């Protein structure tokens, strides 16, 4: 499945930057900080992303998915997904959610980057699925997401272990265009920066569209 993120794209420089940082770290420290299990014999981390399991090597950061029923694996080939996970492993730490969800505005610096998030994620999500609720439902069910009560159709997806994203749609009609909201479990604010949350939305919507093609 083509996610249109080649290594010669604009992501190449940050990829190389975080890869250099990743290689200098202690894998045991990464595991303790992120919660990603590390196997000293195979020199592999186990990482879960949107329902699939990946094995990530140290120090080379080679990634291989574990075959499953989902059938689409963005961490194998999508450069923005590779950078996001590697940045998390290099710089961030996992904290647990209180069970609450927050908007992008609630994240530090979210007000500054909201217009970008709105166009890149909210509007794209709304106009991709606001009039295709059945396709959205089919994709989310395939991902094992949990149905939620908000809007006309909503699902909560575990993006990574302990990190949840809630996708909410309001269907369009003759008078009003479709609209959407994307909420994040409150621990996202400690685990990622505002710019990263736009990437989380981007990766998720790319995954939905890839799965939509696969399931049609």
Average per-residue pLDDT, rounded, comes to 93
The spatial strand order of the largest sheet comes to 5-9-8-7-6
Largest beta sheet, briefly? 5 strands, antiparallel
End-to-end distance: 14 Å
Shape: globular
Given the helix and strand composition, which structural class is it? Answer: alpha+beta
Please report which band the strand proportion falls in: under 5%, 5-15%, 15-25%, 25-35%, 35-45% or over 45%. Answer: 15-25%
Percent helix, as a range, is 40-55%
Low-confidence stretches: 1-8
Short description:
By secondary structure, the protein is of the alpha+beta class.
Give keywords:
216 residues, alpha+beta, four-stranded antiparallel beta sheet, single chain
Task: Give the SSE map.
Elements: H1 12-23, H2 27-34, E1 38-39, E2 44-49, E3 52-57, E4 63-65, H3 74-77, H4 79-91, E5 101-102, H5 110-129, H6 133-142, E6 146-148, E7 153-160, E8 163-170, E9 179-185, H7 188-191, H8 194-215
Antiparallel strand pairs: 1-2, 2-3, 3-4, 5-9, 6-7, 7-8, 8-9
Helix pairs in contact: 1-4, 5-8, 6-8
Structure report:
- The protein has 216 residues and is an alpha+beta fold.
- 43% of the residues lie in helices and 21% in strands.
- The protein contains eight helices and nine strands.
- It has helices spanning 12-23, 27-34, 74-77, 79-91, 110-129, 133-142, 188-191, 194-215, and strands spanning 38-39, 44-49, 52-57, 63-65, 101-102, 146-148, 153-160, 163-170, 179-185.
- A five-stranded antiparallel β-sheet has the order 5-9-8-7-6. Strands 1-2-3-4 form a four-stranded antiparallel β-sheet.
- Strand 3 (52-57) and strand 4 (63-65) form a beta hairpin.
- Helix 1 runs parallel beside helix 4, helix 5 packs parallel to helix 8 and helix 6 crosses helix 8.
- The radius of gyration is 17 Å and the shape is globular.
- The two termini are 14 Å apart.
